[in-house]
Amino acid sequence: MADFTTKIVLGLDLAKAIAKRASEKASELNVGGAIAVVDDSGNLIYLEKIDGTMPAASNIAIGKAATCAAFKRPTRILEELIQNQRIAMLDLSGITNTPYVPLMGAYPIYINDEIVGAVSVAGAETGENDEIIALYACEIVVN
Q: At the topology level of CATH, where does 12-138 sit?
């Protein structure tokens, strides 16, 4: 008989709650933004774009989140790595099933110390705002 393992899956209700928290933080900072939540394979679960946010932000957010999920680390680390030492990482455009976007503003989502997906923000005026909002959104999930 085969052994089976269980897998924790990020569902739509939690994805919406994460996006809502991100939207609240964006409102507090008085900025717009597109918020993308993906599963651990980088597939989109939920996308929300705050009114007035630049149109391209949605696709950028999806790409950031998928990149974060694929590499299992915050995209800030990837952006810094590219800027400081490994520019060749820009040639990894086929690594995700959506556009590869190694820009700050995406964080893995953990449940019970397991990565179940990622959240990202794009279009919140600065990369730092994207970071603040995405990180704040992740805090809703407590291990």
A: Beta-Lactamase (3.30.450)
Q: Which two three-digit tokens encode residue 45?
A: 């679960």
Question: For 45-59, b where at least 16 C-beta lie within 10 A, e where not — what string?
Answer: bbbbbbeebeeebbb
Residue written as token pair 């569902």 = 11
Q: Please, are residues 42 and 70 in contact by the beta-carbon 8 Å criterion? A: yes
Q: What is the DSSP letter of 55?
A: T
Which residues, other chains included, contact 125 with Cβ-Cβ below 8 Å and sequence gap of 6+? 31, 32
User: How is the chain split into domains, by residue range?
Assistant: 12-138
Task: Quote the Cα angle for 48-6-141, to 5°.
Answer: 40
Query: Residue 29 half-sphere exposure, CB side, CA atoms within 13 Å?
Result: 22
Q: Angle at the Cα of 24 (from 19 to 25), degrees rounded to 5?
A: 100
Residues 101-137 pLDDT 10s: 999 999 999 999 999 999 999 999 999 999 999 999 9
Question: Residues 136, 25: contact at Cβ < 8 Å?
Answer: yes
3-class DSSP state for residue 107? strand
Does pTM surpass 0.90? yes
